[in-house]
Amino acid sequence: MNLSHPSELKALLERHGFSFSKSLGQNFLIDEGVLSKILDAAALDDETCALEIGPGAGTLTRCLAANSKKTLAIEIDRALIPVLGESLAEFSNVNLIHADVMDVDLREVTKDAFGDSPFCVVANLPYYITTPIIMELLESRLPVTTMTVMVQKEVADRMVAAPGTKEYGALSVAVQYYTKPSLVCKAEPHCFMPQPKVASSVVKLEVLPQPAVEVEDEKLFFQIVKSAFGQRRKTLSNALSKSPYFSVGKERVMAALENMELPEGVRGERLSVEEFAELSNLLK
What we know:
CATH superfamily of the largest domain: Vaccinia Virus protein VP39
Oligomer: single chain
Radius of gyration: 21 Å
Strand order of the largest sheet: 4-3-2-5-6-9-7
């Protein structure tokens, strides 16, 4: 069974009377070149455990099962469970769960599947819920080693963006706080069935053993980041002094910026992750 061939994928779906759901953002990967690049980036071996979110018809899942020790796949669409039952029938190392990943206790289900072993995440993520899924995986401090995920191109660009660019924002800082991100490849709409209206990219996030920077108050650090990018056109001193998340006077913010030798009118988009950490520690 080669589900990257449109004819085989269509035949499988037709056998089960499956119809695509726009509300679930279902776009199944059918490009062997992109699939190969995902697997190369994930660097699986027979000692690796893999978590897939949104397996769809099982195109990527089959590759994960063939190249990993164990694979756990979480699928929200009940209509795809019998499809996956057929496409994954030959593999004994796959555990399939029918559930909404945002309602699942990921620590519990991954421990049930993998024990105490670390695992990687490899997935073509539903675009409408990409950021919440990634942040849940990172903030929960699960034993994730890497995340190789297909996301909307603009989201991938934001993850890897450098300070001072238009793509740089709160997501950039959050991802770069927890991981070392890199772009793997781009996937045009014709790589999927049905074709989405936007281009996609595969990004690899190498999860750091410790956050990239040391902060004394992690909650305050992220509140500062959210405040800085919540009103991008405002100077950092104005954005922070009027933050809905915490109370700090403008004079104190100005003093911290001066201590860091940053200009009075600097905006948040100019600060690196390291500078946000330093500012957070000064305002603690």
